[in-house]
Amino acid sequence: MHRSAPKKDINEDDLKVSEPAHAAAGLKAVMVSMERGFSQAGASRTLRSMLRVNQHGGFDCPGCAWPESITERRKPAEFCENGAKAIAEEASARTVTPEWFAQHSIEDLRDKTEYWLGSQGRITTPMIIHEGESHYQPISWAQAFSTIAEHVNATTSDRCVFYTSGRTANETAFMYQLLARSLGTNNLPDCSNMCHESSGTALNPTIGIGKGTVSLEDFEHTELIFVVGQNPGTNHPRMLSALSDARKRGARVVAINPLPEAGFFGFKDPQTVGGMLGKAEPVASDFLQIKVGGDLALFQAFGHLLLEEEKKNPGSVVDHEFIAQVTDGFDAYRAARATVDWEATEEATGLSREQITEIAQLLIKSKATIICWALGLTQQPHSVPTLKEIINLLLMQGNFGKPGAGACPVRGHSNVQGDRTMGIWEKPTEKLLASIDAEFGISSPRAHGYDSTETLHAFEKDEVDVFVSMGGNFALANSDTEALEAGMQRAKLTVHISTKPNRSHVVHGKTSLILPTLGRTDKDDKHPGGAQFLSVEDSMSVIKSTRGRLTPVSEHLLAEPVIVARMAQAILGEDHPVNWRAMAEDYDVIRDHIEKVLPGFENFNARVREKNGFVLPNPPRDTRSFATDIGKGRFTVSDFEALKAPEGHLILQTMRSHDQYNTTFYGLDDRYRGIKDGRRVILVNPEDLEQTGFKDRDLVDVISTFAGTERRANRFRLVSYPTAKGCVAAYYPEANALVHRDLVARESNTPGFKAMMVRFVEHTQQPGRTLDS
């Protein structure tokens, strides 16, 4: 039997701190996975779901986007601990009924943390709250869609915003963007705006595609792997298998990160007897503990050292033939990297010249290099230049289109990449819009819409009347929490297509709807033609099917494509040129449209039914070609840049707990870092802690400084921890309130979650909204 939802919320006074772990996964991960499943969903639903996750004919894990092999047989347990937690959350037998909402007023819920809200269970019925009311109340689906239509048709399209979470499947995302463009807006912010937008912004102009250029099989042939600004042990645990196997085959794995994460040093493979018994396989052969924001300086130094070696031994490092045939700009790049300021580089990185030179030697010797990265690189003011420097290094050695080599941005959310492929983007290309218009007989808007940061600004200026959220938790996912929540509450209508309660439901618009939807694990069989399936795209451009098998917890849940179709019908009317009903009834119809609109989806319905799905075209990987505006791979030149904290300040980065997935908290045990039963903590290097005048476990308020203004977040506990000197770390989203909305990555507009300048003051009762006060 599953356990009932917790009655108590987080009590930060219960914080427990122990020594950080030195290895990830193992028997403990298996035990935690099963315990979380049984407590949420019960034994039967847990076991039925675990046997189906990431299997042929089963459902794609709602967690990360790490791929499965398309050449090897699937393992019986093709999931990780955090994937199991994500499944347990979705397969939960706990329910949030109209009676639950009747018992909990908005004022009551505003004091609850995201952990408590998310632990209550699956929402069973559409709910609504009007201005001045204290409680959500049930509403019929027909009335809900009528309410949405009334509000949308009472305003203009530019004052409507359609937000998307990466949990959304391809077919839903395609319909969702079609709805927005049918209305006349490109206001399509999504969660990728807040994570890997910098990756696409750097990759598109340099290699002609905004995605990675490797396959999982490349990890079997590589000589050198960089894992930069990334914590695979918590955020992509199945990646540890690929890294560990590469080490066994003789590859070097270099981890570059401000925190010494457990997954870098050891992996107890739960698929093996040795791993279950506690034997840890090595993962990283080398670890560089870099300062936050120092990666640009590091990769510029690598470029310099590689070119210096090429001078000494011509032809030993640089792939001149590749550069001459398919790239542009190498001479300017070589000139820019002719010198390096070692004093500035050591200051920016926190690394010695000797450490940097030693790792550069690995690059010099490697004939096949993969460079992986995640949010540690994408959420800096200079993120885009940093990623372009990575591309420079890969181009210089011809590390595209050959086995074991390429760029590997590791997406942290299942199908966030697929949503972009489907057209969820506020800056669509003319080619995409023309193709949509030709297929459906509509006139898509050409003006760019809002991204996530621009949506925050629009909320603040009262320029949003209707906000529709397809999954996700926008209030907590974005920066400048206090300003964002205040703006959301001034909107005329907020619509949340959700599975479970979250903070965005609490800081709602004047009228707010919660529309409960099926999840990945749920059976979707209420259609004239029987059960339907959807598709997703993983981090390596593989399109595969996903089909839930569990009986939904309520008969009132609707599938996401059905919700989009019925919204569209209510808003646009039955005489609209798009046949929304046909798509809602038969998802093959959606895929037929996708095939005609998007390149690479030829014969979509047949290929998605193949055992391993199919791989989308990727010119750099497939043909060593680059679809940039000049038809070549582009070397770029960026100025030296690094983060420098003002006197008396430290550089703060946000991070996930091991018991967390984005804004969803599975529990309160960040066991790899030794933090338990508390989340409002700041991890501080012992030397920095001494210099601040505070002691380990002191209670402080945190003040961030940006552009002459300050943000304050109260009641954080300092924890002595081996972070990079000058750098501190705190959990997301508790620290989001400290990020000024204008602190963003240039070009991509991604919030600067890894670039806050903070100082500590003794905790007082000064104003400053916190999630637990």
UniProtKB/TrEMBL annotation:
Superkingdom, taxonomy of origin: Bacteria
Keyword Repressor in record: no
CDD domains attached to this UniProt entry: MopB_CT_ydeP (cd02787), MopB_ydeP (cd02767)
GO MF annotation: an example: molybdopterin cofactor binding
Requisite cofactors: [4Fe-4S] cluster; Mo-bis(molybdopterin guanine dinucleotide)
One GO CC term, this protein: membrane
Residue span(s) of domain Molybdopterin dinucleotide-binding: 650-756
InterPro entries: Asp_de-COase-like_dom_sf, MopB_CT_YdeP, MoPterin_dinucl-bd_dom, Mopterin_OxRdtase, Mopterin_OxRdtse_a_bac, Prok_molybdopt-oxidoreductase, YdeP_MopB
Similarity comment: Belongs to the prokaryotic molybdopterin-containing oxidoreductase family.
Protein name: FdhF/YdeP family oxidoreductase
Organism of provenance: Glutamicibacter halophytocola
Source lineage: Bacteria, Bacillati, Actinomycetota, Actinomycetes, Micrococcales
